[in-house]
Amino acid sequence: MDRQVCFALYSASRAFTGLYRPVLEELGLTYPQYLVMLVLWEHESVTVKELGAALRLDSGTLSPLLKRLEARGLLTRHRSFADERSVAVALTEDGADMRAQARCIPDRMVAATGLQIDELEQLKSTLERLTAALDSAAQHQAEDKREGQR
Fold it and tell me: Where are the domains of the chain?
């Protein structure tokens, strides 16, 4: 196991999520809900499709998250004016106000890692390149599978 990159990533992800848990409980958010709020704090209003793409979540996972956040009064969902087939998600005033309470979270997480900012930026860049390479490999794998079925 000590040579498995995937297990190291899995372990780091679980450790990070565990570190976030008590901090986010203060806001009444889960980690996935926090990610939704981060996107909305950056963009104020997005479609469900855009949100799913940004977070790499399918609608079956995203819909319950949005429903819970909407029930808490943090966001609204409505049909897009530009395209009635599309559902737009927007922050409410309470959702926007929560941003001030959450502003310190990234700094708390950085401090908890014990790593320097440049180390974290390099790690993030490496992980983004890894994600892109894995996405490409998965796409090629799916194409090869389709070709094999013909």
Answer: 5-114, 116-150
Among the listed residues 38, 114, 126, the one whose alpha carbon sits nearest the alpha carbon of residue 75? 38
Residue pLDDT, tens place only, 57-108: 998 999 999 999 999 999 999 987 777 788 999 999 999 999 999 999 999 9
CATH number of this structure's domain 5-114: 1.10.10.10
CB atoms within 10 A of CB 112: 13
